[in-house]
Amino acid sequence: MGRVSQAQAEENRRRVVDTASRLFREQGTHVSVADLMKAAGLTHGAFYKQFASKEALVDEATVHAFSELAQRYSAGLERNDGQRGAAQQALIDTYLSVEHRDDPADGCPVAALATDVARESGGSEARRAYAEGVADFAGFLATDGQDGIVRLCTLFGALVLARATKDSPLSREILDAARAALAEAG
């Protein structure tokens, strides 16, 4: 098999990062390199041509996941003609939905990666990107009457609890209660 072009190599790398970002949110960062590369449609050996280590991929995939999140709330602002309150409410409604609860792979990296990032060393790029992403997301959620960190903690806590109780009526009750609490406080 011949060498791949630089453009194909860049596309392969992008595909691996995107796949890793989704799999890490869905299954955690313990996903094996072999399983990750299979999901990306590439060989295990191709991984080491693209990344120095799995940790380097975790770092890049974390940055990618938070970039996707930022793009979502920026797109929400555009859809709502720059009306921050309307964009925030739309995001809250989507965040606290059964669909988001049931789709961690395409969901929020705050909830999906928290436990894995907490286990990372203090100086890791993943931890830095996570902290920066949390701060940015909280900044987006802030209103004149409500702190963005409190709103984010409410969203995060509700989503994690709803996922953990998914097979129980309590799950939907958690989502509904958090949505109502945020609406009341906002």
What does this entry look like structurally?
This protein is mostly helical. It contains ten helices and no strands. It has helices at residues 6-27, 33-40, 44-50, 54-79, 84-95, 98-101, 109-118, 125-141, 148-164, 169-185. α8 packs across α9 (148-164) and α9 (148-164) packs antiparallel against α10. It is globular, with a radius of gyration of 18 Å. The mean pLDDT is 93.
Q: Summed up, what is this model?
A:
The chain contains 10 helices and no strands.
User: Could you give the count of β-strands?
Assistant: 0
Query: What is the general shape?
Result: globular
Number of helices: 10
Fraction of residues in β-strands: under 5%
Distance between the terminal alpha carbons, to the nearest Å?
Answer: 59 Å
State the share of residues found in helices, binned by percent: over 70%
Question: What Rg do the Cα atoms give?
Answer: 18 Å
The average pLDDT value, as a whole number, equals: 93
Assembly annotation = single chain
**What series of H and E elements makes up the topology?**
HHHHHHHHHH
